[in-house]
Design a protein that fits this description.
single chain; 304 residues; mainly alpha
């Protein structure tokens, strides 16, 4: 009976199933196209306005076709007026050490939590993860006081304090990004077989050598994904630099966009050009690591 009836059931259900699958795929692709258009619209609109002279926008309005030729004049003016090369360097001085030290500490913590059983490994992971739920605004006053009172050696700080120094901004980024990075890397490391660590221990390898020569090479997709995210988070920071730095010349590139605002009038076309120039490094970092980005985030997503 089973042999005779099964093909008939399949013959009746297969076209319906294929139709359901095609409909689901069509809806998914439509949703993705709409979301891509929603995401790209502000970027393309900013690019359009950045290419227009402000006189043309003032005369015809922002939602209009150009009456004058599109040029790169706003980009050239924004580059010179905002002194962007100087602020690019300021941002890299904060972002590169912040990303490297955060990944180093997070990988060591994740390796300890996931590859060895001890009483407090879950509590430590929860502690680091819970830190991400704390709003930064809650600790503004005590943190500001700590930065004003904490002495630092003069080879790290020209005023002897954490306040108004690159090292202070790097510290706060490491502290706030460490929990998220540890959570992601620990989930990824759980997907690696424990036999790798056990075999290395049997062969006489030390813990640091196992971490450096066995675990870290296998974590390259997750590290690349985290490096991309952390660089973007730190690069786009405006809050900590505004709070913990008083010298405008030391602030990162996001704050440099303030230099494009006038006292009585703001040229939004010029501001759009400066914002697009400021976004270039983040886009380049994503393009450099895009092959590992999705793979690094999804491989450890199913194991918690």
């Amino acid at each position: 009976m089973t042999v005779v009836t099964t093909p008939r059931v399949r013959a009746r259900t297969t076209p319906a199933l294929l139709q359901h699958v095609n409909l689901a795929r069509l809806l998914l692709q439509t949703f993705l196209v709409v979301m891509a258009a929603v995401w790209l619209f502000p970027l393309l609109w900013a690019l359009y306005e950045a290419l227009r002279p402000i006189s043309d926008t003032t005369k015809r309005g922002y939602f209009s076709l150009p009456g004058q030729p599109l040029t790169l004049a706003n980009f050239v003016t924004a580059w010179d007026q905002a002194n962007l090369p100087h602020y690019y360097l300021n941002t890299l001085l904060v972002a590169i050490p912040g990303v490297v030290v955060t990944l180093l500490l997070a990988s060591l913590l994740a390796f300890t939590i996931t590859k060895f059983s001890w009483k407090l490994n879950l509590a430590v992971l929860m502690l680091f993860t819970a830190g991400n739920l704390l709003p930064p605004q809650v600790i503004i006053i005590p943190l500001y006081w700590v930065y004003l009172k904490t002495p630092m050696p003069h080879f790290l700080s020209d005023n002897g304090l954490l306040y108004d120094q690159y090292i202070g901004i790097i510290f706060i980024h490491i502290v706030f990004q460490l929990g998220f990075a540890t959570f992601v890397l620990s989930n990824y490391m759980k997907t690696l077989p424990k036999e790798l660590t056990e075999s290395a221990l049997v062969d006489g390898a030390g813990l640091l050598r196992i971490w450096a020569n066995v675990i870290m090479p296998l974590c390259r997709p997750a590290l690349a994904a985290m490096a991309t995210l952390l660089f973007t988070f730190i690069y786009n920071d405006f809050f900590w630099a505004l709070l913990l730095m008083k010298s405008g010349s030391k602030r990162p590139i996001v704050s440099a966009l303030n230099n494009l605002q006038g006292e009585y009038f703001t040229n939004y076309n010029l501001l759009a050009a400066g914002a697009l120039l400021a976004a270039i490094p983040s886009i380049l970092i994503f393009l450099a690591f895009q092959k590992h980005f999705v793979r690094g985030l999804t491989l450890g997503a199913t194991k918690g």
